[in-house]
Amino acid sequence: MVDILIATGNSHKFREIKSIMGDFAELNIVCLDKSFQIEIVEDGETYEENAKIKTEGYIKFLDENPGLKSELNLSYIVSEDSGLEVDCLNGTPGIFTARYAGENASDTDNINALLNAIKSKKNCMQNRHAKFVCLTCMYDVKKHSFHYFRGELNGLIDKEVSGAKGFGYDPIFFVPEFNKTVAQIDASEKNKISHRSIAFRRLAETIKESGPAYESKTYKRI
After folding, report:
1. What integer best gives the mean pLDDT of the chain?
2. Mean pLDDT lowest among 187-191, 195-199, 210-214
3. pLDDT tens-digit profile of 154-195?
4. pTM
5. What is the pairing mode between strands 129-140 and 145-157?
6. Which residue has the higher pLDDT, 207 or 60?
7. What amino acid positions are annotated as catalytic residues?
8. Angle made by CA atoms 107, 204, 163, in degrees to the nearest 5
9. 77: helix, coil or strand?
10. Among 3.90.950.10, 3.60.10.10, 3.60.130.10, 2.40.30.170, what is the CATH number of 2-219?
11. Pairing of strands 27-32, 93-94
12. CA nearest to 18, candidates 194, 197, 205, 182
């Protein structure tokens, strides 16, 4: 059995990651719910740095809680940092994607801020190319080593919101292959093409031989 802790407090991301990695039946995917209060300050300058900061935050938390660490008996701790890069905005918002409109900004706030920024740039009229980037950081508990996997999804920034599926910037990220925004694509299809899917499938491929199937679950504080 390969027990993998996904180091995130974002329930949307965890459900998506669990679904992506569900094809690899030998992996036991777990997460900790928000009651554990793990504080992470993402002050890195790259996706890789931020992903590692998250992973190290969970490593530290588990070292400080040996009972929980023993119960989990993890093989790997995995985190990810992702972002949206818009060509005509010189690659922004990038690592600031989740807080483009400010700290604690909602998805709607971020989308509106991005669309307004694009409207203010003349060169965005003809070039609306963008890409989603996902960088995963996998910590091997036994070997005490870090490994990184990257995934990208190319597309265009639409002029208006379309679709109610997904989260984040999905309603304005248009995928020419489907002639739809990501928020209009079924989750099963999204999980075949997304930046997060590419990165996590690459990660899972490297460890899929490690053990038999086991049920995904969430550990909660009693």
Report:
1. 90
2. 210-214
3. 999 999 999 999 899 999 999 999 999 999 999 889 988 999
4. 0.88
5. antiparallel
6. 60
7. 81
8. 25
9. strand
10. 3.90.950.10
11. unpaired
12. 197
86 touches 157 (CB < 8 A): yes
Whether the CB-CB separation of 51 and 78 falls below 8 Å is answered with: no
* Nearest residue to 4 (alpha-carbon basis) of 17, 13, 12: 17
Beta-strand ranges (E) seen in the chain are 2-6, 27-32, 76-86, 93-94, 129-140, 145-157, 173-175, 180-181, 217-219
Mean per-residue pLDDT for 32-47? 91
Give the residue-averaged pLDDT of 68-79. Answer: 96
Indicate the domain borders of the chain.
Answer: 2-219
d(CA 1, CA 143): 17
Nearest to 33 by CA among 157, 203, 222, 218: 218
Q: Is the pLDDT of residue 17 over 60?
A: yes
CA distances from 57 to 40, 60, 128, 139, 161 (A): 6, 5, 36, 12, 35
Tokens of 167: 């989260």
